[in-house]
Amino acid sequence: MRYNPKSKTVLALETSCDETAVALLKSECGQFRTVANLVASQIEEHAKWGGVVPEIASRRHLEALPFLVEEVLSTSGQSMREIDAVAATVTPGLNGALLIGSVTARTLSALHQKPFLGIHHLEGHLASVFLNENPPRPPYLVLLVSGGHTELIKVNNDCKYQRLGRSHDDAAGEAFDKVARLLGLGYPGGPAIEKLATYGNPKAYSLPKGRVSNPAGGFYPYDFSFSGLKTAMLRQVQLLETKQGELPLENLAASFENIVAEVLVERSIRCVLNQELKTLVMVGGVAANKRLRKMMSDATSSYGVALHMAPKAFCTDNAAMIGVAALKRLESGVSQSSIQLGVSPRWSLEQADLLYRANAPF
Ligand code: KG4
Ligand code: ZN
Asked: 247 C-alpha vs ligand 2 centroid, how far in Å?
């Protein structure tokens, strides 16, 4: 095969929460191709505790990561010599979990003399939409809905972000997980609620949409709050338990899923129209939800807004999206992060550029 100077290959690692993931990505003429993509889920282990246990997550990452790296290289038929850069998620996430991926990536990078790129996890989610055949062109609005974040982000240009809306309490995925626990369903809650909701009536219960008051008057138009909805679900469950004993789980799941989707759709549409943008992108774990995908697709087409959603398989955490984010950074002229770059549980996406400064910010 002839060497194409414009083609780049990245080995990417993702360990910010409870999925150990490794992928090998190639960029060719502006297109991104997943050559190998492995995810070792720890869900079963954490499910016993009803949520992610940070110490268990770190230990499992440490055990699984070397095998996944080896497997990805061997299935893709590539050696470290053919890799142009090694990337890992460095923020935000669980400190210990992030550290396992970052130290592994930096070790590989030093050992094989390849540039290291520290990636912002949310930039990874944003990049997941480029694993579609028809990616969006900036400027556009992104609804990022995951277990840790619910945000409306304007992408002005590749790697230039402006947050316009956010949740003031739980993220949408976190609300799915907590309500699933309340209903006695498994972890993670999103897929469990989605499954039951298929058989329920989405209008069975009237639930609140959760708005955030602005101290200067009125409400923040693009912000979210899911804590009131969680409490309303708890009250509804308590009421039903005293009245009839057995819970109508399907109707409760469908009503909850429907109200979350309505809120997400309404605020995204309001924001995209007010900002005079023509394109909306939806990414993150909750973006895998069928009802939300359908409602968002109906609403955008009725307002003449183009909708680009991350492929379902790349909505929840994976390393392919981290690889695409790294390739896009390389395309934008970034050469590497400092090998001294550590990890941080929190860091704003608007400051992701600082991850590529010679003076590491953390
Ligand atoms: O993006 P992600 O894998 O991790 C974070 O970065 O947070 O998102 C995980 C979240 C969990 O809260 C999970 O319950 C939710 O995404 N989720 C879903 C679905 N699949 C995953 N929520 C609703 N419907 C789904 N099908
Ligand atoms: Zn994520």
From this structure: 32
Query: In this predicted model, what pLDDT tens digit does every residue of 187-220 receive, in sequence order?
Result: 899 999 999 999 999 999 999 999 999 999 999 9
- CA distances 143 to 188, 259, 354, 358, Å, are 21, 16, 23, 31
pTM score of the predicted model: 0.96
CA of 316 to the centre of ligand 2 (A): 6
Contact criterion met (CB below 8 Å) for 88 and 124: no
Give residues (CB < 6 A) around ligand 1: 17, 146-148, 173-174, 176-177, 188-191, 194, 284-286, 288-289, 316-317
User: What CATH number does domain 7-128+315-356 carry, 3.10.50.40, 3.30.420.40, 3.40.640.10, 3.40.630.30?
Assistant: 3.30.420.40
Q: Which two tokens stand for residue 44?
A: 């079963």
Exposure string for 280-301, b = 16+ CB within 10 A, e = fewer: bbbbbbbbbbebbbebbeebbe
289-335 residue pLDDT tens? 999 999 999 999 999 999 999 999 999 999 999 999 999 999 999 99
Q: Write the DSSP symbol of residue 358.
A: S
| Class of domain 136-309 (CATH, top level) | alpha beta
**Residue pLDDT, tens place only, 162-180:** 999 999 999 999 999 999 9
